[in-house]
Amino acid sequence: xxxxxxxxxxxxxxxxxxxxxxxxxxxxxxxxxxxxxxxxxxxxxxxxxxxxxxxxxxxxxxxxxxxxxxxxxxxxxxxxxxxxxxxxxxxxxxxxxxxxxxxxxxxxxxxxxxxxx
Length: 117
Hints:
The chain is mostly helical.
């Protein structure tokens, strides 16, 4: 008689393990936002990570349509990370360009000051 509650508990755990993943609506929204942000800072299809993010998001949408929610979540998470990497690369490149420009201005000012003395 004591094994019955144990059996019921194990059966409930087994059923819970078989439950399907919920649709990753929030993750899909976050991924689309990350893609928009990357594009807003200047990422284009020339940035490989942006293209990867778009491809993975397309696969995630396909997984959503076929109700493969676990796969959709994984693809959407990967796409979000790729989009954030694309954004970071673009921002880093822009920062390096600004740094180079500022350095050339400093060098020109030093040269001018050296000539005046």
